[in-house]
Write a structure and sequence with these properties.
This protein is of the alpha+beta class. The chain contains 27 helices and 25 strands. The strands form seven sheets. Strands 1-25-4-24-23-9 form a six-stranded mixed sheet, sandwiched between helices. It has a six-stranded antiparallel sheet with strand order 3-2-5-6-7-8. Helix 8 crosses helix 19, helix 8 runs antiparallel to helix 20 and helix 9 packs across helix 10. The protein is flat, with a radius of gyration of 64 Å. It is found in: Chromosome, Telomere; Nucleus.
């Protein structure tokens, strides 16, 4: 046995109904599997499988390699590892200890069988592809597989063990697409995709047509509104044209009027010149004499002005000398005032000396009175002792208050720190809730309902596990999440089963929420001990069990220990990874973790052979946010303690404040008494000091007496000097007065002379005033007429130039005949032109808010409207064409689809009726035009007392979902256009009755000649099942104690078993 175990084991799947040659009843359809070869693949060293054309029942114990055949089919047909739901790297499917693996499949094809080979290399997860022995690539393999209508990614055709649960999770839309691809005509799915694309384009065209129609309507409405403004604009323009013509004619009227006025002024000016010449000849002698008098008056007037200036200068000098004299008088008054001040100061000095002497006498008298009073020093000392005692007590109270304040500050700081800590914990809990709401809103809604209605339940009810689990170290969160499914992480945990049923009735049935709930085991499992102590596993690199990595409430931990064996799942490090081959040979290890991988170890109950699967440990998404519930309670308790101690300190502070106030009152009384005694003790000394001070002051005052005689002598000298200066100033003043009198007399003589000449001139002027007035008037008239002539001449030139400029004429150009005719229809006088011009302007001004832009915009919009109408017609035609296309494609797609669904429903309902249950399949759509919302709805009923419910991942039990999935797939079997179908261990969750019924349906359906190849994988079969001749039963015998394939004789084995059955003997 030892020698045989060392040899390479070669296991071969034998067909117990046939010999080694691959011959089967029936015929293979296009694309069905004729042969599967595996070398160094998962559990196989080398094996060849020859399936039959109809139903292939693959039977074998767990761990022997049934699912390995499914993996081989998927990977060799270019399927993704994600389809299998096992290892995510293709290198993980190579047998442990080997560097490469090999898978080959032979597909039936009328034009010659197709052989596809894939060689998988572990080192770099690369593959080498071959087709019919020649090198190829994955893209070409995918094309060949697609041409044979093989879809390993379609759950309706290929359902691996790990994906059985996902079938019920498929949405109605996904199920429809999978069904179309699996059993519909090749063009059905294409039509569906075309319809979805057509519908999207139809929506786009509808939006475009709607937008253009709306824009067109708005443009028409705007133009209709603007049409009235356009009419008003043209009417205004007619008035403006008249105004323009009037403004052109007005300069011509003004010019003509001014020209006529100029001719009249010229004639009037010539007549005035003649009259002026006659007046000038008659006034000439008298004017000559007046001129002579003017010649004499001018020098006299100049002398008079000179005398006036000299008199003014003399007056200024007089004023200056008078001011100097006043200054000297003021100086003498100031000297006398200083003398009087000195005399007054001396009188005050003598009074102060007298008062000081009296004060000294009074103080001496008072000192004599108090000389016999007793000493108050002992009383002051007693008061000082009492004050010191009060100060000591006060200092003690202040020290106690300081200590209390310091303690209160510390408590306040600690409270703030605890409050921040509690807030951070609450924020982390809120973050976990937000993650739950984002991932599964129904669970979050149910959580809110539970918090409001927790009093409805009798036992403990816990929120979803992901909220109550507290990982001790965020680094451990990934292990917990990878071990516990999200299905359970979002589950509510109940202590009592009746509470759970009540909860599910409310949230699932009434509120239609998809939630999970579990009930904790009746007997607590939270304290279960692991199979081995962690100390005994440290040699493998294990450092803890999964249970020790997190905290959870009692019932939650009990469920996790019962369901997930968290107390018996060790966690290791890189050392564990390095010796993983040794570790997995330990018989007590079922699930374990290394630093970055999770390993599941299974031991076959038949062969005792160990099989392992591993997967990468994904980063944590939910549990990395940790909040220690115990720590949170401790923080809340500490905050309460701090608040209580703070209140106690406040009370103690108030008591100390009262004591301090009493001591303050006592201190004030003692200080008042001490002040009184001190004043009494120091009064005698103060009196002596005052007497001494006053005597010193008296001596100083007696020494500082003013000598009034000396002061009077100095004052008299200053007054005498000032009087001498006054005499000099008075003499200068007298000289100025004499000079002013002389100049004044000379001025008077000149004034008399000037008056005589002026009188004579006035007499002459009076004589000729009448003639001069007439002459001057005539002269002024001539001047005015000359100026008027010049003005009118320039005005005529300007008006003519402006008139021609307004009419856009050249300077030498004559007015045109058209313009003359237009002017002839207008008034000829300036007033009439102004009246008509004002009238036209008033009418034009009535049309406010109008501009040429209104007309331009109106015309532009008219062109846009024509363009829009044309574009709208084009888009409308395109939309109608699209709708016609949609209608045609819809008819080609929907009618066959409805017929297909009816056929599926007939089979599905028939299968359910045969099981005394009810089920139906229908085509579901909320809106017939929304082609991307069409889906297949499966509704089932397993109990007569219930209604038909839609098949979901939450409403039915696991066994019910398996039955529904299996029967739907069987309903597709006869309609199937795919060459084969694979279903792996779908009967695991079924009860025996349903399993037997489903098996009978599978046999009846899959063994018909019209159906394609079918693979049904199961680890067990019920007894006394009915089999069909068309079936091929493939038993997997794979293990260390099996015979080599060259020693296995199928015919001999069958004969021996038949002989044993007939004779009832032992083998």
């Amino acid at each position: 046995m030892a020698e045989s175990s060392k040899r390479q084991r070669i296991s071969r799947i034998q067909n117990i109904l046939q010999n080694a040659s691959p011959v089967a009843i029936g015929s293979f359809v296009e694309g069905s599997i004729r042969r599967i070869t595996m070398k160094n693949f998962l559990t196989y060293d080398y094996s060849e499988v020859y399936p039959g054309p109809n139903l292939n029942m693959i039977v074998g114990a767990n761990g022997t390699g049934k699912s390995s055949i499914v993996c081989a089919i998927c990977l060799v047909l270019a399927g993704k590892t994600a389809t299998l739901g096992r290892g995510d790297k293709v290198g993980l499917y190579v047998k442990r200890g080997c560097q490469k693996g090999f898978v080959e499949i032979e597909l039936n094809r009328n034009a010659g069988n197709l052989v596809i080979s894939r060689e998988i290399h572990v080192e770099n997860n690369q593959s080498i592809w071959m087709i019919n022995g020649g090198m190829s690539n994955q893209k070409r393999v995918e094309e060949e597989v697609k041409a044979l209508q093989i879809q390993v990614s379609n759950l309706c055709q290929f359902l691996p063990q790990e994906k059985v649960g996902e079938f019920a999770k498929m949405s109605k839309i996904e199920l429809l697409e999978a069904t179309e691809k699996s059993v519909g005509p090749p063009e059905m799915y294409n039509y569906h995709c075309e319809l979805k694309n057509f519908r999207n384009k139809e929506r786009e065209l509808e939006n475009v047509v709607k937008e253009k129609a709306s824009f067109l309507e708005k443009a028409k409405q705007r133009n209709e509104r603007n049409k009235h403004d356009v009419n008003r604009y043209y009417e205004k323009k007619r008035h403006l044209d008249v105004i323009e013509l009037l403004e052109k004619k007005k300069p011509w009227v003004e010019y003509e009027t001014t020209r006529k006025e100029l001719e009249g002024v010229k004639m009037e000016r010539e007549e005035a010149k003649k009259q002026l010449s006659a007046l000038r000849q008659s006034q000439a002698p008298m004017l000559k004499k007046i001129q002579q008098i003017d010649d004499k008056l001018k020098p006299t007037e100049a002398q008079l002005k000179s005398k006036t200036a000299a008199i003014k200068e003399t007056s200024v000098n007089y004023k200056r000398k008078q001011d100097h004299l006043d200054q000297k008088n003021k100086e003498i008054d100031d000297i006398k005032q200083n003398l009087r001040l000195k005399q007054t100061e001396e009188e005050d000095h003598q009074k102060r000396i007298s008062n000081t002497r009296r004060t000294i006498e009074d103080l001496k008298s008072e000192l004599a009175k108090i000389a016999d009073q007793p000493d108050v020093t002992p009383q002051i000392n007693a008061v000082n002792v009492e004050l010191r005692r009060v100060h000591v007590e006060r200092a003690k109270i202040e020290g106690d208050k300081t200590d209390l304040r310091r303690e209160n500050d510390n408590i306040t700081a600690e409270s703030k720190m605890l409050e921040k800590k509690l807030k951070d914990m609450n924020n982390m809990m809120n973050a976990k809730e937000e993650k739950l709401r984002g991932r599964h809103r129904d669970t979050h809604t149910a959580l809110q309902w539970l918090r409001k209605n927790r009093d409805l339940f009798e036992g403990n009810v816990y929120e979803p596990m992901m909220l109550v689990l507290n990982v001790k170290d965020p680094r451990y969160a990934k292990y917990v999440e990878n071990h516990i499914s999200f299905h359970d992480l979002r589950a509510f945990v109940f202590q009592r089963k009746d509470d759970m049923e009540k909860f599910m009735t409310e949230v699932r049935d009434k509120m239609d929420l998809k939630v999970n709930s579990i009930c904790a085991p009746e007997e607590s499992c939270s304290k279960r001990q692991p199979s081995k102590s962690i100390e005994s596993l440290r040699r493998f690199g294990f450092y803890t069990y999964l249970r020790e990595m997190f905290d959870a409430p009692e019932e939650v931990m009990s469920y996790l220990c019962f369901q997930y064996k968290v107390h018996d799942v060790p966690v290791g490090n890189d050392q564990t990874k390095a010796i993983i081959k040794t570790v997995i040979e330990e018989p007590y290890l079922k699930v374990l973790f290394t630093t970055d991988e999770r390993y599941t170890v299974k031991t076959s109950i038949y062969s005792k052979k160990i099989s392992t699967s591993n997967s990468a440990v994904h980063p944590s998404q939910y549990l990395s946010i940790t909040v220690d519930a115990v720590q949170k309670q401790q923080v809340e308790q500490q905050m309460k303690t701090c608040a209580s101690r703070s209140r106690e300190i406040d009370e103690q502070m108030k008591a100390l404040q009262k004591e301090a106030a009493a001591l303050d009152r006592k201190e004030n009384e003692l200080l008042s008494e001490k002040k009184r005694l001190s004043e009494l003790k120091g009064k005698k000394r103060q009196l002596e000091q005052k007497i001494s001070t006053k005597q010193d002051s008296l001596k100083q005052m007696e020494q500082s007496v003013i000598d009034l005689k000396k002061v009077e002598e100095v004052t008299n000298k200053k007054i005498k000097a000032a009087n001498l200066q006054k005499v000099t100033i008075v003499a200068a003043i007298v000289d100025q007065v004499k000079l002013k009198a002389k100049l004044t007399m000379e001025k008077v003589y000149l004034a008399l002379e000037m008056a005589g000449l002026t009188a004579e001139k006035a007499k002459l002027e009076n004589d000729c005033r009448e003639g001069a007035s007439e002459f001057k008037t005539m002269e002024q008239r001539c001047s005015r007429l000359e100026q008027r002539k010049i003005q009118l001449t320039e005005q005529c030139k300007g008006l003519l130039k402006r008139a021609k400029s307004n009419c856009r004429m050249q300077p030498d150009e004559a007015i045109s005949e058209d313009l003359r005719n237009a002017f002839s229809k207008l008034p000829d006088t300036l007033d009439e032109v102004d009246v008509m011009l004002n009238e036209e302007r008033s009418r034009a001004e009535c049309f406010t808010g109008l501009s040429e832009n209104v007309v331009e915009e109106y015309n532009k919009r008219e062109q846009e409207i024509k363009v829009l109408e044309k574009e709208l017609q084009i888009k409308t035609d395109a939309l109608n064409a699209y709708r016609q296309n949609i209608s045609e494609v819809k008819e080609r797609w929907l009618n066959p689809l409805k017929l297909l669904v009816e056929q599926i429903n007939d089979k599905f309902s028939e299968f359910f009726r045969s099981m005394q249950c009810a089920g139906e399949v229908d085509l579901h759509s909320e809106n017939e035009e929304e082609y991307d919302k069409y889906g297949i709805r499966i509704r089932v009923k397993f109990h007569s007392s219930t209604q038909l419910h839609e098949l979901t991942a939450h409403h039915q039990s696991g066994g019910e979902r398996s039955v529904s999935t299996m029967l739907y797939l069987m309903a597709l079997q006869e309609l199937n256009r795919c060459p084969f179908r694979v279903v792996d261990e779908i009967n695991q969750g079924m009860d025996p009755i349903n399993e037997r019924r489903v098996f009978d349906i599978v046999v009846r359906t899959a063994c018909k000649e019209t159906t394609s190849q079918y693979f049904f994988i199961t680890p067990k079969l019920l007894q006394n099942l009915e089999y069909a001749e068309e079936m091929t039963i493939l038993c997997i015998h794979n293990g260390p104690h099996m015979l080599p394939p060259n020693e296995w004789n199928t015919s001999a084995f069958i004969k021996r078993r038949l002989k044993q059955k007939n004779h009832g003997g032992n083998p």
